[in-house]
Amino acid sequence: MERQLSFGVRFGLCGLMALGIGCASAKTKKLEAAYGPTESIIEVVAVLRRHIPDDTYRFPPATDFTGRNVYRSTLLRLENIERIQADPLRSGYMDPVVDFAKARALERLRAYELAVLLYLRVAERDGELSGPARESAGILEQINGALSVGIHLRNPLDSPALSPTQEVQDPKLAVGELEERVALLSFLYDELQGNYMRAVVAEEIERADEVRASYFVNRRYILPDGQLLAVSELQRVLSRHAASKKHLRHMINLADLYNDLAREYVAASPPQSLDFDPAQFQDLIDPAAQLYEAVAAHDGTPEKLEAGRKLEALLAFTLQVDVDRFSD
Predict the structure, then answer these.
(1) Residue ranges of domains in the chain
(2) Strand, coil or helix: what is 145?
(3) Would you say 103 and 133 are in contact if contact means Cβ atoms under 8 Å apart?
(4) What burial letters (b/e) apply to 118-128, b meaning 16+ CB within 10 Å?
(5) What H or E segment, with its residue span, contains residue 315?
(6) What 8-state DSSP symbol labels residue 50?
(7) What is the distance between the alpha carbons of residues 15 and 23, in angstroms, rounded to a whole number?
(8) For residue 322, what are the contacts with CB-CB under 8 A and spacing of at least 6?
(9) Residue 66 pLDDT level (bands cut at 50, 70, 90)
(10) CA 260/CA 265 separation, integer angstroms
(11) What DSSP element (H or E) covers 182?
(12) Which of 206, 192, 189, 199 minimizes the C-alpha distance to 56?
């Protein structure tokens, strides 16, 4: 009897252990399925297709479970699949799908020329994707044509090709060229009614306005009334792109300029001297503090943390100036 009972207990324990192992295995497989490497082109394309209509001008690009930009992750995953499954894909039957998906991802990463090449390669082959690929290539070529007009932001790590005096060009010429670029992009924007590419064009219009503002900010000590022009241009970006996902960033940029002007004013006219004008100093501090405070009120954004820290630094600087002015 005891032997039978002992055997029954052992059998039950073995059953429970097997059940537990089975549950653990099922959970592991479920996690691997959710977070493991992608093995299907269709799966990658399906995720990308879901986010093609996203308005990336108004909202930040979607991210995958790793936190990476979904367009960048799509490009990386497609390249990984091509490398891992090189033999099955050697026949080229999936090339149009892969090239089309890559082009869709690249256009959101501002790699327009490479995207055009992939679209044209898809358009050369008969199929359902040839028409949309040809249309998308035409849109990107128009964007590239507009971007060829006017100045661009210079990479600060590149060695300057021109001397500092040669880099300073006529402000009217710089503004005129950028206005021409914006006009070309705006015309294309109106043509793309109902097309997801309107968001891409809107981003390029915003970038052109940022380049224009940066031109005046970087030359504010060279141009007549440069300080006023710099403030005015940053205010222009802020007002023209109130619906942009970068609106808080534009507010911080304007606040930073006021902050820099206030610190430069104190360096040029120390609070201990008679040249210091409290009213002028306050005219620079107040808008900077108000902008930082407004950004710091937006919960759940990286700009909130940045603006909060900069506001604290600004208040500390202001207190230091007041101490220097009113100390005996």
Answers:
(1) 37-148, 169-237, 246-328
(2) helix
(3) yes
(4) bbbbbbeeeee
(5) helix 302-326
(6) H
(7) 12
(8) 271
(9) confident
(10) 8
(11) helix 171-191
(12) 199
Tokens of 244: 């942009």
Q: Give pLDDT tens digits for 118-168.
A: 999 999 988 889 999 999 999 999 999 999 999 988 888 876 655 444 454
Amino acid identity of residue 139, one-letter, is I
The model carries a pTM of 0.82
Q: State the angle between helix axes of 247-268 and 278-296 in degrees (0 to 180), rounded to the nearest 10.
A: 160
Containing 204, the helix (H) or strand (E) segment is helix 197-218
Structure tokens given for 66: 């790793």
CA distance 60 to 244: 9
For 62, which DSSP code? P
CB atoms within 10 A of CB 301: 14
Decide if 48 contacts 74 (C-beta within 8 A).
yes
The answer for 38, left when phi > 0, alpha when psi is -120 to 50, beta otherwise, is beta
Q: How far, in Å, are 11, 17, 21, 276 from residue 24 at the CA level?
A: 20, 10, 5, 73
